[in-house]
Amino acid sequence: MESILRQRVMRRARFSDSVRMYFRTSGYAEVDTPVLSPFLIPEPAIEVFRTEYLPPSGPARPMWLAPSPELWMKRLLAAGAGDIFQISRSFRNCEYGGPHHNPEFRLLEWYTVGTGYLDSIGVAEGLFDHLIAQLVPGPRASLLAPPFLRMTMEEAFFRYADIDLAGCQDVLSMRAAGEANGASMTGASTWEQAFHIAFLTLVEPRLPRERPLALLDYPALVPTTARRRPGTPWAERWELFVDGVEIANCYTEETDPAALALLVQDEEERRHGCRTSHEIDRGFAGLFPPDFPTCSGAALGLDRLEMVFAGEKSLEGVIFFPFSAIVDGQSGTEA
Amino acid sequence: MIKASDVAKGTFILINNQPHVCTERDYVNPGKGSAFVRLKLKNIKTGSVLRQTNKVQDNLEDVSVEYHEVQFLYADSENYAFMDTKTYEQFTIPIEGEEEKRDFLKDGENYQIVFWEQTPIDIKLPTKMVFTVSEAEKAERGDTVSGATKVITCETGLKVKVPLFIKQGDRILINTETREYQERVNS
Q1: Tell me, what's the ipTM?
Q2: Of all helices (H) and strands (E), which one includes residue A57?
Q3: Chain A contacts to B (CB-CB under 8 A)
Q4: Cα distance from B134 to chain A (closest Cα, Å)?
Q5: DSSP characters for B85-101?
Q6: DSSP string, A155-187
Q7: Whole-model pTM above 0.95?
Q8: For the segment A78-131, what is each residue's pLDDT rounded down to a tens digit?
Q9: Residues A237, A250: Cα–Cα separation, whole Å
């Protein structure tokens, strides 16, 4: 009989193979891009890992471990690579433990040219259908099966927190709405913090779990590279929740250099509150040529997806050497 | 003060001048947002439950508590009775709200009790404890499928799923947080 460890090794290998098979047969080319970067896109919500390159002579050069492959994959995309996907090692510092975080993790990122964020829901649903057929997750299949539920963020706030999100476009009104509905908002000094505290306290715990949920149209006030829906306070963005776990994040990508330059400038300023600093990717805003078609990009936490498909409650159920075990000095995985 | 990121299950903090114990703690880092901890807190005086979300860098007011070594004496219909092993003073803690701990309290066994302002507020259970199997059915011959389990009863009434080879009189190690069997203990 196979050992439990052998079963886990085989399960993980089959899972990765199945993901690759789906994208390859769907017309996406697999790419690989650097993990070691001399600069990064400024993202104030992410703390990063710093290291150094030592040339044969001369001073050391600071380098950073990429928290996602976005800056390199967008260079390929902008240069005409077409539909691409990657399973990359990604690194995020200052993760404080818990079952759904590991400072080193696998990110599945894919870009589709000529489509918007809503089309990408279909790509993700196709991936789930393919994985269910390949991996036969048994009774859990109903929790994972497409079609995904679809709900806008505005509807979710109205339904679960009785908050008119469109009417809360400044920090004071967002804080007041959260307080009025029972959330402690004392720590919220910015709109983004107030929104997330209200969302995490009042809305997210009540989101439906019977099928995967695509939560659509995030507030444009949360700065991202998602394109804004013209004339609305919403960004063309969805996040995917499976069994209550946040799995993926997808945009219609902003390609306008002026809008991206503003975003980079704003994000660079907000990074001053971070514990870690890094060189800024100065070329990011001007990557896309003016006639670049609409495109959609999605980033999916592959270890988390494997966890929910395997019916595990923690990433430790799928990662062989979780960070907590490595830093505690344990040498291996339990057989 | 204590950083929100350092609050763990079992940490005591003061909210609106009321002592609370953290019963659940969830680290969340939204795709494009700040990092937060989502806490479930139980008011020690009233038993009411409060859920709140804090930025990881928020400072919270911690509660200064004392730990006393005590011996468990008995439980009646309403209270658990203990004796302080240093002062020999006896005191009780209401069972209400702490019912799930009854299965882990062994007569004559030593435990730690948390005191806040001279009042006992919480019973700390060791993460792992040894129990004796008081009732166990014999495994059926031929029932040897790998991973098969049966339910046994321990001396406190605790019921646990164990492997088929465990028999009456065996001593077993139990995780008190998950209520799961860990291993057989050689006596």
Answers
A1: 0.81
A2: none
A3: 1, 43-45, 92, 94-98, 100-101, 183-184, 187, 192-193, 195-197, 199-201, 205, 222-224, 239, 246, 249, 299
A4: 30
A5: TTT--EEEEE-TT-GGG
A6: HHHHHHH---GGG--SHHHHHHHHHHTT---TT
A7: no
A8: 999 999 999 999 999 987 678 899 999 999 999 999 999 999 999 999 999 999
A9: 5
